[in-house]
Amino acid sequence: MKSLRPKAEFHKWQYAIAICVLGVMIWAILGSALLAISLSVIAIAIPTEVIRYRRSKIIKDEREGWPMVIDHLLSGVNSGVSLQQTLSDLSIRGPERFKTHFQDISSEMSSGASFAEVMKRARGEFHTSGADQVLGVIALARVTGSSDVSPILRTLGEFLRQENALRSEIEARHGWVRSSASLAAIAPWLLLLILTSQPSTRAAFSTDTGIYILGLGLVLTAIAYIWMNLAGRLPEVPRALS
């Protein structure tokens, strides 16, 4: 199965090389190694934020896709379609992000693999507690009969939708706070980058006092950035079956 985890466009060592090249370019332009190092350190946060955004988007898409999967399962169960056929249909009619995964699940079951092992491997490809709950109900339906799990699926679908709605509301309210904090952290360094076009600014930050202020600014920005990420992180529901 293919993982839903976001893949960085560059490896870590490639990011390091890009940051080093950026630092050398800034040094060549500004003529100050200290300013080049400071601005390069701040630039490290940019790819980190990009990767975090891509991962959060994938997890959000996955979280919002499970209620649609449940609707399809309920439709198949109520129509008397077999569980294996219902799972196969999800590779065609299910949420776009899940199609490949359910196609792999169907292929593994068709090849004679153990249903329990298939479900276990499938849980490892997802990142939310909803995956454990839905795939756990599917495994239960395999044992007890699909007609007995309709009420469970219906209740689970309602619960996941309510959870998604609540989380979306919280994320919307906190999103602007996080964006404002990120802008407040990066704005002084953008201003510094603009001001370094003046020789007097470069000369000022080459003095002992300028070096002290620059170092203190780096430390405070790093502390604020870490604190912002810790304070703005929403807890995830523990994955009991992973």
Report on this model:
The protein has 242 residues and is mainly α. It has one domain. Helix content is 78%, strand content 0%. The protein has helices spanning 12-30, 33-43, 45-78, 83-93, 99-110, 115-123, 129-144, 150-195, 199-204, 208-231. Helix 3 runs antiparallel to helix 8 (150-195). The chain is elongated. The two termini are 16 Å apart. The relative contact order is 0.11. Residues 1-10 have low confidence and may be disordered.
Number of strands: 0
Principal-axes geometry comes out as elongated
Poorly predicted parts: 1-10
- What's the story with the biggest beta sheet? none
Succession of helices and strands: HHHHHHHHHH
The chain-level mean pLDDT equals 77
* Helix content bin: over 70%
Distance between the termini: 16 Å
Strand fraction equals under 5%
Output the keywords.
disordered N terminus, elongated, mainly alpha, about 240 residues
Concise structural overview:
With 242 residues, this protein is mostly helical.
List the helices and strands and how they pair.
Layout: H1 12-30, H2 33-43, H3 45-78, H4 83-93, H5 99-110, H6 115-123, H7 129-144, H8 150-195, H9 199-204, H10 208-231
Helix pairs in contact: 1-2, 2-10, 3-4, 3-8, 4-5, 5-6, 6-7, 7-8, 8-10
